[in-house]
Design brief:
The complex is a heterodimer. By secondary structure, chain A is mainly β. Chain A has strands at residues 4-7, 10-13, 19-25, 33-38, 45-49, 53-54, 62-67, 70-75, 85-90, 102-106. Chain A is globular, with a radius of gyration of 13 Å. The termini of chain B are far apart. The model of chain B has no long low-confidence stretch (mean pLDDT 97). By secondary structure, chain B is mainly beta. The chains are: A mainly beta, B mainly beta.
């Protein structure tokens, strides 16, 4: 199985900050990498697929890049509604494993 | 509008069985792979199982292989997860998820609200 490792596990930041989360795969997954946002008590929501493709309706302050084993997810200017937990997921092969999550908290 | 509504969760004793159901609407159900994803209380997301649109092929996480069975009834727009030999570590919210492909890259497009399964004596 492919292991996905996210860092950091948690992050404190302020409104307006630029934040970056990294995700590393245990083997090459090409660009088969998705990013999700989950708010407390809610189901996750997909933001980005294919490593860097933004879903329709997702604000442009969200972006991501990478291929192979190393990926990054960036929020260019944090908004109050962005404080949530973010997960990466590989869709290269089953089981389509998730990273352990990054909890983004208000500083 | 895509809607996914899970049911069947509840309290079950270790070693017991439970069948989760998910009714789908708002899309051509048979055209999409469907997935179950779970989340233990206070923990991260865990991919559980996937079934392709026709139902002819399935895959499972190692943690549930041999104990859980995913199935679907395309005539009823229903997705199922039969869970046997349940363990305490299976306690989680189980989400029914619709997969979608963008240029061949699959992602979890729509999620149900989840159903809680608690395995405890």
């Amino acid at each position: 199985d492919i292991q996905m490792t996210q860092s950091p596990s948690s992050l404190s930041a302020s409104v307006g900050d630029r934040v970056t989360i990294t995700c590393r795969a245990s083997q090459s997954i090409s660009s088969y990498l998705n990013w999700y946002q989950q708010k407390p008590g809610k189901a996750p929501k997909v933001l980005i697929y294919a490593a860097s493709s933004l879903l329709s309706g997702v604000p442009s302050r969200f972006s991501a890049s990478g291929s192979g084993t190393n990926f990054t997810f960036t929020i260019s200017s944090l908004q109050p509604e962005d404080f949530a937990t973010y997960y990466c997921q590989q869709s290269y092969s089953s089981p389509r494993t998730f990273g352990q999550g990054t909890k983004l908290e208000i500083k | 509008e895509v809607q996914l509504l899970e049911s069947g969760g509840g309290l079950v004793q270790p070693g017991g069985s439970l069948r989760l159901s998910c009714v789908a609407s708002g899309f051509t159900f048979s055209s999409y792979p469907m997935t179950w994803v779970r989340q233990a209380p206070g923990k991260g997301l865990e991919w559980v199982s996937v079934i392709i649109g026709s139902g002819a092929s399935t895959n499972y996480a190692d943690s549930v292989k041999g104990r859980f069975t995913i199935s679907r009834d395309n005539s009823k727009n229903m997705l199922y997860l039969q869970m046997n030999s349940l363990r305490a570590e299976d306690t989680a919210v189980y989400y029914c998820v619709k997969d979608r492909s963008g240029s061949g890259y699959y992602f979890a497009d729509s999620w149900g609200q989840g159903t809680l399964v608690t395995v405890s004596s």
